[in-house]
Write a structure and sequence with these properties.
Layout (H helix, E strand, L loop, with lengths): L1 H35 L14 H51 L5 H30 L14 H18 L11
């Protein structure tokens, strides 16, 4: 009978110890599954009787935070790249639609719009090349490419492209600038 009691006590102690050791591991495993599914907001409560488990939880929480930050940066980057790639395409479409909408387009206007379309194609090509260079670029060797832009010329170019659409809608565009 003493052996049976000792065995029962041993089973109860082992059961409690296994809960003590394996419950934090189960929590960690559940949190890891959530992160694997894309839920980077999951955090583990850093209260534990074991210093090692607390350190693991802290490390997990830091990793989940970094993954969340990286996801936000990636989303912003993709959004910005999409916008930058669409801008020249939109400009080319506006120019082409303006030519299509007009009957008997004078040759000089047609040539001017075609030059503008060619410039937008070059702009799109430069954006794509910059994007490819960015992908290949070593982060440590990154350098900024700073250029000077004449804002008045840029505004005039934009107005020139928008005027045909504005005229079609009986809108007058005016540029007033200070040199």
């Amino acid at each position: 009978e003493l052996i049976g009691t000792c065995l029962l006590v041993g089973i109860l102690v082992t059961s409690q110890l296994s809960k003590f050791f394996f419950n934090p591991i189960k929590k960690l495993r559940g949190a890891m599954d959530k992160v694997a599914e894309g839920d980077f907001a999951v955090r583990l409560e850093e209260k534990s009787s074991s210093k090692e488990i607390m350190e693991i939880y802290t490390g997990f929480n830091l990793m989940a935070h970094e993954l969340s930050s990286t996801e936000i940066l990636q989303t912003d980057f993709v959004s910005n790249v999409s916008h930058e790639l669409k801008t020249p395409l939109t400009s080319m479409k506006v120019l082409a639609d303006s030519l299509i909408a007009q009957e008997n387009v004078p040759v000089d206007l047609y040539q001017e719009f075609m030059v503008d379309i060619a410039q937008e194609i070059e702009r799109e090509d430069k954006i794509i090349n910059d994007l490819l260079a960015l992908v290949k670029m070593d982060k440590a060797a990154a350098s900024m490419n700073i250029t000077t832009v004449n804002m008045n010329q840029l505004a005039e170019m934009i107005l020139k492209r928008m005027r045909p659409i504005a005229r079609k809608n009986n809108v007058e565009l005016l540029l007033v600038s200070t040199r």
